[in-house]
Amino acid sequence: MSALLKKANIEVLYEDENYLVVSKPSGLLTIQDRYKAEVPNLKAKLQEVYGEVLTVHRLDKETSGVICFARNAEAHKDLNRQFAEGEVRKIYWALVSGRPAIDEGQVDMPILNDMKNSGKMLVHASGKEALTYYRLLESYGNISLLECFPRTGRTHQIRVHCHYLGCPLLVDSLYHNKSEFYLSEVKRRFKHSKFEEERPLLSRLSLHAKQLEFTNLKGEKLLIEAPLHKDFSALLKQLSKFN
Q: What is the pTM of this model?
C-alpha cells in the first residue's frame, strides 16, 4: 500500500484493471464537497495514487467501510447498471440504541428531504421508495448490533430507517443528538481518575459498511468485506463484557 493511503487510514481491499475497492475511514468524504473543494476526500486521495477512478456509489462522511470505484468507462457503466437494478448486495453493521420489536424484519418506508432541517432526511409518504432488511446480531442490554441490507440507496437510508424503528444509531448527532459514547454509560460503578476527563469509546457514527457483492465484467461474483475499524471493534469488545 502507498504511504499516502496508509497515512490517510485507507485500506485497499481489492484491485484489478477494472475495479478498486477500499475501506473508507470515518470522517472522510467520498467525493469533493461542492461548496468546499479544499476539504479532503477519498476519491482525490485515490487518484493521487491510481490516476483516474470513477465514482459508482458513496458512503456518508461519517460511515466507515467498503466502497468501490471503477477504473474505466466499461466497468463504470456496468456497475452503475447493477446498482440501478438492485443487483449489488450491500451489508452494513449498525450499533443502535434499544432493540427492535422483532429480531428480523424490514422497513419499507419512503424517504424525503426534510425541508425544515437542511441536510436531514425523514420518512414521508411523498418521499422516494426505500427498503431496508435487518436482523439482530447481538443484544447488549439496551444496545443492539444490527445487520442491515438496504435494497435501495437513499441518502441516510439506514440511519433514517433505524430511527423509524425506534432504534436510532447509538452515535448519530443528526438523528439521535448524540456525538459520543462513553464506557460509563454501560459500566456500573464506573470510576475514572478525578484528574483526567473520561474519553469516549466511540466519537463517530456507529455505522460500518461491512460487505459489498457485485458481478465483474467476466460474469464472476466478487464478495469483498471490510474489517471493522479499531474503534468499532473496541466498543463491541467492551459491550460484550457488560452484556
A: 0.92
